[in-house]
Amino acid sequence: MGSEAILRALAEPRRQAILRLVRDRPRSVSEIGAHFDISQQAVSQHLQVLAEAGLVVAQPSGRQRLYVVDPKGLEVLERFLAELWPKGLDRLKRAVETRRGR
Questions:
Q1: Amino acid 93: pLDDT
Q2: What is the DSSP letter of 33?
Q3: Rg, C-alpha atoms of the chain
Q4: DSSP secondary structure string, 42-86?
Q5: Enclosing domain of residue 49
Q6: Residue 48 sits in a domain of what CATH number?
Q7: What is the Cα 83 distance to its own chain's centre?
Q8: pLDDT (tens digit, 9 = 90+) per residue, 1-39?
Q9: Residue 64 forms beta bridges with which residues?
Q10: How many structural domains comprise the chain?
Q11: What sign has the CA pseudo-torsion 21, 62, 6, 97?
């Protein structure tokens, strides 16, 4: 799982939306599919790409699998961005922390 696979996975807007859905709580393929006008098979394919990139993992739950964000994949992305733009991220961090302190 590298930053290139993660960026490729996130280049597709539906996969970004799927990642946002499973960020908050585990969801099944059918639950995720209810948010899109695509087949359940297409949702499964998007989830497979996200899983291969290390962004989601499937957790067995009875007869279904629930998908949830894999924090390790996000850590890889965070490291990549920090290497790409270290000073900018540091400025952004300080700005956010300053706003929280208000």
A1: 77
A2: H
A3: 16
A4: HHHHHHHHHHHTTSEEEEEETTEEEEEE-HHHHHHHHHHHHHHSH
A5: 3-100
A6: 1.10.10.10
A7: 20
A8: 688 888 899 999 999 999 999 998 999 999 999 999 999
A9: 61
A10: 1
A11: positive
